Amino acid sequence: MPRTLPINPRFRRIYQHLSGADLAAPELEELSLEDLGLGDSQKARVGLLFGTYSHPGLERVLRAYGLIQRAEERVGPVELRVQGEDPFRPRVILWSRRFYAPVADLSLRMATGAEVGLGDALATAPLLYVDALLLQNPGRPFDWHRPPLPGQSHPGLALSAQLLEVLMLMARRIGAEALALTPSTFAAASVYDRRFLFVDGAAQGRFLAMRDAGRGRPRWLLAWAVELGCLRDAEGQSVPFTPMPMLAPLSRRLIRAFDAKRWAEAREQTGRQPLTLDEEALQQRFPWQRMPPGPPPERLAELLGYDPLAPVLAH
User: Fold this and answer.
1) What pLDDT digit, counting tens, does each position of 225-283 carry?
2) Are 285 and 230 in contact, with CB atoms under 8 Å apart?
3) Which H, E and C letters describe the chain, residue by residue?
4) 80 - beta bridge partners?
5) Quick check: 97 and 76 in contact, CB under 8 A?
6) Interior angle at CA 278, CA 272 and CA 282, nearest 5
7) Distance of alpha carbon 53 from its chain centroid, rounded?
8) Alpha-carbon distance 304 to 59, whole Å?
9) Global pTM?
10) Structural contact between residues 243 and 179, judged by C-beta atoms closer than 8 angstroms
């Protein structure tokens, strides 16, 4: 299997110490007959997220891993909001009390292998699917150390790696064999590629070829080049990014799927196709109006053809 990052050992230890009672416990004032062992415990679990997490239990988990504390270090006090009318399709939000905006917003659901393109025995494999994921810092402006990525309204929260680890452990907890998602942009895929692989081997190879085309350049700049249609194949045609499902496998049989000869051959075939970055097209199409004020660093100014004498056109 191609190399992906292992889960943080500290997070693994936290996972092992969290009990089912920690995850499902209600607030003290919400204790019911079921909580006291006097009612139907099976019925009581129906309202738990994925049959496992209560709202207080989920907050306890996020604090145990330090995610809420780290978010608050960046944006001040946050409030956990959970929309769980369908407990198997919850929406989880960290709401900033200072900025009156979400700093984390994710929608989750249970899915099967067939929904992401797995066949045969893997078609029925249970997956935890991330339908949507937003991490943002509404209180921080963009600057040339962290320019905006395509689709970004605010800088990120610098918590994606930790959050994805927690979601992988959540998937394991509820019996899913993988964490799955579909990145909508090359920029998003570049965030996920340390832990996720494309289900389709050809899509994996194409992504690697795109990444190689931007070698030596900032990843955010390559993301814009892809978004603006500035990557070219050997025939000079624009190469777009096509959203395709990605998996972070947890079970042995799903891990083996990425060792399969067919997947590896498809990856190698598309990965060998050379792509180039059309610098002239990037200069012509670069969205200066989206960029931070002031001139870019000297190296970027040269690459992008920045003209300091034309500030109106640049900004």
Assistant:
1) 999 999 999 999 999 999 999 999 999 999 999 999 999 999 999 999 999 999 999 99
2) yes
3) CCCCCCCCHHHHHHHHHCCHHHHHCCCHHHCCCCCCCCCCHHHHHHHCECCCECHHHHHHHHHHCCHHHHHHHHHCCEEEEEECCCCCCCEEEEEECCCCEEEEEEEEEEEEHHHHCCCHHHHHCEEEEEEEEEECCCCCCCECCECCCCCCCCCCCCCHHHHHHHHHHHHHHCCCCEEEECCCCHHHHHHHCCCCEECCHHHHHHHHHHHHHCCCCCHHHHHHHHHCCCEECCCCCECCCCCCCEEEECCHHHHHHCCCHHHHHHHHHHHCCCCEECHHHHHHHCCHHHCCCCCCCHHHHHHHCCCCCCHHHHC
4) 94
5) yes
6) 135
7) 21
8) 45
9) 0.90
10) no
Taking the CA atoms of 163, 165, 166 and 168 in sequence, report the sign of the dihedral they define: positive
Token representation of residue 300: 């970027």
Amino acid present at 196: F
Distance, in Å, from the CA atom of 281 to the CA atom of 265, rounded to the nearest integer, reads 32
